[in-house]
Hints:
By secondary structure, this protein is an alpha/beta fold. The chain has one domain (2-141): 4-Layer Sandwich (Metallo-beta-lactamase, Chain A). It has helices spanning 2-7, 23-26, 28-34, 55-67, 128-141; strands at residues 13-18, 40-45, 72-73, 79-80, 86-91, 110-115, 118-122. The strands form two sheets. The protein has a four-stranded antiparallel beta sheet with strand order 4-5-6-7, with no helix packed on it. Strands 1-2-3 form a three-stranded parallel beta sheet, with no helix packed on it. The protein starts with a helix and ends in a 10-residue tail after the last helix. Zinc ion binds at residues 20, 22, 25, 105, 125.
Amino acid sequence: MDEALRSVKAKRIDVAILSHPHDDHVENLIALVEEYHWPIERVLLSDSAWWFGTATNRRIRELFAREGGAGRVGRPGERFDWGGGEWLILNPPRGEFAGGASEAANVSIVYLLSFNGVRALFTGDVEATVGRRIAAELKAIADISVARRPE
Ligand SMILES: [Zn+2]
């Protein structure tokens, strides 16, 4: 990630979206801040008790505290216009999946990013039931069909 950021001559990370509290999705943020010293302007994360459930997640919370913010919880229906793109948050519903490890995948922040005429859906690790609900909501709010990503 450090190499990718340097290759596009980035000076900071405007938004870090931590979709859900599984180590494989969040642990590299620690190195980006502590070893490579990337400043992060804002953090969007999911509402989950599991942010306190693993050593990695506790380190991330400590990192936020040191860097001056706890992060902000994303909610469905919120729209952001960071960096000229549009982020539409689609998951998780308020108060759902906020418990421990068994719910951590379905608490993923899911968002539709529209940028330069391209739309991409980021789903974290939501499971099939939640994925089907999101696909149905997408049909209702946007003229899009959802295709599987190429393998
Ligand atoms: Zn996961």
